[in-house]
Fold:
Amino acid sequence: MQYFDESVRVYVPGRNNPKVVCIGGGHGLSAMLRGLKRHTRNITAIVTVADDGGGSGMLREDLGMPPPGDIRNCILALANTEPTMEKLLNYRFCEGSLCGQSFGNLFLAAMNGISDTFDEAVHRMGEVLAITGRVLPVTNQNVHLEAEFENGSRVLGESKIYYHKKENDCRITQVRLVPEHPKALPQSLEAIADADMIVMGPGSLYTSIIPNFLVDGIAEAVAAAPGCKVLVMNIMTQEGETEGYTGADHVRALLRHGGPHIIDVCVANSTPVPEDVSDAYRVEDAEQLVLCREEIEAMGIQVRCHPLLAMGQRARHDSAALATVLMDVLRNYAVG
Structure:
């Protein structure tokens, strides 16, 4: 299977259009989608709905709807709109009862009010914004995230996990959804089964990536899928979640929750984070991720390291570079 003319590195209708499924949440997923939409129009983003903090948490509590924030970010990443529309949807109110709330969240909440299901509301918003590909909530059910720690303590609510971990100063051993076994959307399972490549991450390990694999059918569908399964490693560890973790620790945690055969390849950044940027993270008790490549390869997983760091005040993936590397991984995997 060969998707690319070697002279072409962006999407050309009729010449290359691989089917890519992206699983995760948070800003890491939306940033990756911005790069991928230059290479293919056949993108399905499957997004966690366990968030209960910030503006999303407020709307969830007030309206009884799934949290819109991560979904909104993914829709905007795939949108093909005028700059003014993007600014409008990203606008946050600065005062009054809507202080801190995003207009994009309110837009999706209104769409949910005129739709029969949340996934229908997401689809309609995607149509209005003429997005490339599609965005799917991992489930339509109202779920919360519970974390269990090494000392046996537990906490319910994604927004509380950070503070509980800091107070207890011990690792997370397991996360679960409450109620357990929510149903995945059939469209998600179909997209996974039909995908040429399934990409997990980048994003918060326990609160953005793993929750998707706790929804009934997702882990099994990924394990059974014939497409290339790729985990994009975070550049830094995360305060309140993965302090002291190596890349191998990330892999083990994902496999522990999702089961075997869900990762074929790990993609990791090889560029050192500048000292001034690292200093800012040290204050947060975070540091550049140490990969432990040999440990990952011993699990039967390929490792690909590339310069993926975007220059800036925070350590973020370069969207364009990451997308190019993922397409190269797909081509080499398919040809090999």
In short: The first strand starts at residue 20 and ends at 24.
